[in-house]
Amino acid sequence: MKKKIIFIGPLSIPVTGNSIVNDTIVQRLAQNSSFQIKKINTSYPEFNEENGKFSLSKFLFYLNSNFQIYKQIDVQIVYISIGQTYLGILKNALPMLLAKLFRQKLIIHLHGNVLESNYTKATSFQKRIFRFFLKLPNKAIVLSSHLKHNLLPFLKEEDILVLPNFAEDAIIATKDEIEHKDYSQIKLLFLSNLMTEKGIFELLQALHLLQNKGIFISTELYGAIDKKIEIELRTAINSLGKHVTYKGIATKDKKKYALIHNNTFVLPSYNEGMPLAILEAMATGNLIIATRLPGLKDILTNGENSFLVKKKNAPEIAEILENINRNPEVYTDFYKKNYNQILENFTEKKFSERLFKIISEL
Question: How far apart are CA 100 and CA 94, in angstroms?
């Protein structure tokens, strides 16, 4: 007999790493004959940097999504892609309460690494809300064992399961594409939403420092720009001249081309779980420059397949880029290690197998 599941969380559009993973969860569960899947899409359609902040339009949007809660009545499993803020918890409060009322299995999936810090900074009343709701799930999913600490204030460690992210099949390069990839000179790529917290301004500052030394690195930037920083960001990009270009939002085909055409991927983000953007860059044979973050410990090792930097440290990024620029071909092993690691551990097939095992054992 099929297990009936309802998935509640943000789906595309807008396209984010979170929504891509959630789209895949829904799609893979729907394709599996053991499960029957329903969904409630909680994706707020407007892209901006102010995640977790209240607005009337957001309140009305999430209120409307709660009107779909009737879909939950006859399921056995409630699967929620949970928010990491106080308001993010509240927007899922109703389905979490109903899961307990209807004695349904409740599983939450945490996609990031800021829940614990948000809990620590919360008021006493907000902390009570966090504790009440985050003690309700039967199981929880995190992206890495290094991210379990986010849920340990609320759940037993044995109830916190690890489900790493993946690189989409359509993105993974063929061996022929890897063999013909150009590593003769550094070609830099930033492919993520262009937000302050993604470290975009630190990257641009690093490129400015290099240009002051007469080093000009070909750089392509892809992603949605938050309107609140658009003028400042475009001014910073334009000041770097023809070597740095903003290419817009990447469709799947454009994304694959950008990842194959370039060879060094940089994401100096302030905080992440296990970003799909980095896994995709690895899957297309890129060297990685990223921030030292707990969720990356499972995939990146400084000096072996990547260079890891401190948060908000443009000079360190500049120094690494200068070293790579001297002789990019020295780092060929980095590129190959990243590609092989994805094929071995971080494909959609591996993700689906781990997901099905988790759901089947609920």
Answer: 10
List the structure tokens of 214.
């007469």
Cα(298)–Cα(293) distance, rounded to whole angstroms?
10
Count of other CB atoms within 10 angstroms of residue 315: 13
Q: Which of 127, 245, 124, 143 is nearest to 194 (CA)?
A: 245
What are residue 309's phi and psi, to 5 degrees? -120, 165
**pTM (2 decimals)?**
0.90
Rounded CA separation 130/154 (Å) = 8
pLDDT in tens, 42-85: 877 665 545 545 555 665 666 666 778 889 999 999 999 999 99
Q: Is the dihedral of CA 145, 146, 147, 150 positive or negative?
A: positive
Return d(Cα 342, Cα 350) in angstroms, integer: 10
3-state secondary structure of 4: strand
For residue 264 the two structure tokens come to 């060094």
For 302-341, write each residue's pLDDT tens digit. 999 999 999 999 999 999 999 999 988 888 889 999 999 9
Cβ(84)–Cβ(118) below 8 Å: yes
**DSSP E strand boundaries for 177-280:** 187-191, 218-222, 244-246, 264-267
Distance between CA 313 and CA 341 in Å, rounded?
28
What is the phi/psi pair of residue 258, to 5°?
-60, -40
Using the Cα atoms of residue 248, residue 334, residue 306 and residue 344 in order, give the sign of their dihedral: positive
**Separation of alpha carbons 245 and 47, rounded Å:** 21
Distance CA 94, CA 133 (A): 10
Q: Which of 258, 246, 249 is nearest to 173 (CA)?
A: 258
Q: Tell me how far apart the alpha carbons of residues 191 and 289 are, in angstroms, rounded to a whole number.
A: 12
